[in-house]
């Protein structure tokens, strides 16, 4: 957590540079690619965290890995982090960038918990419902949890709507527990 503030500062600087060139959306896509790539590769995580590997070598690996996939602003970030010996913060910076980009674009993150993965058409219906409820678009993050049995749990900001089957079962259970029903013998 001690890297949260510096990561936010770097992310704000990158967003300001991206706004100046009009490429903030492209840089956001690049940052999401970086987060996904780091999350999917234990070797890359280990390499970025390793104090034994030189910053120049880390920068070469990142440039080779993301050479034609990222914008020049992101490549400049690789160089800056290498010079300041802060390559370890790349994942945090990329995550912070996405957060402040969403705020800048008035986008929210809607977390939708379902028993199965969302299809595109259901995702579109959820997006329409979010716009109707909040007035803003939201990027949808699908969390799969088979324990809810069916239905969904939608969380946008501080609002939560629970339409899961497990929630309905729990309500029914509480109703039976609270009633003083005495069967006729």
UniProtKB/TrEMBL annotation:
Sections of the chain in a coiled coil: none
Major location category of this protein: membrane
Superkingdom, taxonomy of origin: Bacteria
Entries under Gene3D superfamilies matching the protein: N-terminal domain of the delta subunit of the F1F0-ATP synthase
InterPro entries recorded: ATP_synth_OSCP/delta_N_sf, ATPase_OSCP/dsu
Keyword annotations of the record: ATP synthesis, Cell membrane, CF(1), Hydrogen ion transport, Ion transport, Membrane, Transport
Lipid bilayer topology: Peripheral membrane protein
Intracellular or extracellular location(s): Cell membrane; Membrane
Single GO cellular component term: proton-transporting ATP synthase complex
GO function term, MF aspect, one: proton-transporting ATP synthase activity, rotational mechanism
Similarity comment: family membership: Belongs to the ATPase delta chain family.
Function: F(1)F(0) ATP synthase produces ATP from ADP in the presence of a proton or sodium gradient. F-type ATPases consist of two structural domains, F(1) containing the extramembraneous catalytic core and F(0) containing the membrane proton channel, linked together by a central stalk and a peripheral stalk. During catalysis, ATP synthesis in the catalytic domain of F(1) is coupled via a rotary mechanism of the central stalk subunits to proton translocation. This protein is part of the stalk that links CF(0) to CF(1). It either transmits conformational changes from CF(0) to CF(1) or is implicated in proton conduction.
Record-given protein name: ATP synthase subunit delta
Gene: atpH
